[in-house]
Amino acid sequence: MKFAAASLIVLAGIASTASAAYVLVDDFEASASGSVNGQNSWVADTNVGNTLYAVVTDPTDGTNQVLQLGNPGSDKKARKPLGVANAIADGTTGTLFFRVNFQKSGTTLNANFGLTHNDSPAGTGDFTIQLPLDNNGKLKAKDGGSTVDLANGSATANVLGVWYNLWVVVNHSTDAYRVFVQSDGDADLAVQTELFSTSDPLGFRANPGINSIDNLFIQSSQGFVYWDDFYVDNTGMNLANPTIAIPEPASMALLGLGGLMMIRRRR
Prior knowledge:
Blueprint (H helix, E strand, L loop, with lengths): L1 H19 L2 E4 L7 E2 L7 E2 L8 E6 L2 E10 L5 E6 L11 E11 L6 E7 L12 E5 L6 E4 L2 E4 L14 E8 L4 E7 L10 E3 L6 E2 L11 E8 L1 E10 L15 H18 L1
Antiparallel strand pairs: 1-17, 2-4, 3-6, 4-5, 5-17, 6-16, 7-12, 7-17, 8-9, 8-16, 10-11, 12-13, 13-14, 13-15
Helix pairs in contact: 1-2
């Protein structure tokens, strides 16, 4: 049991370190309800009702705030800088984590989200990494300029109305990326799974050259899509979930000692 307790402490330390490497970009908890434009460095298209890109209550959790795409009807954009310290520089690898929940408007869903190196993106051609949603609510990817399916066997991210955790691992040395997905609401993706295309590795859409990848970017026209908990780790590949609190090693050590004391008493 001593070895088991020690192993538990070591594993907790590894997980805690991985989560700590993430930097919060936005979780919308400090934002006011309504248009996200101008809040926490977001630059977003607006409309009269401030419903295009709006901070709203999570449709699945009344205590949480999220970013909503409110079925604009035509292409509308939103962008947020990661900040110089959090950008993924040329020659490095980084990881973007976020959560997404997508719903149709009638039979239509058309949304694109990802990352760009362009500080003033004009359209989808400016995505460095682009993840589209098709009319069936299926997550896809851009490999260069081609739209490709993402799957792992029969598993695809296509369940409407549930939250998906996404990890996008960005290799700015090879200009390629990988996509990992997990969802408690999708039985096929209940555990973290890498989704592949027939053209792996997935290549960047727009070539950043030596420029850093330094902006979240969304361009969408149809449907209701929700995003939350954007995090970035520009130090490497990181498949930890930064939204899950991991006990610090010191706390785990106390738990382990407590467990050993209980075992001794039972003896």
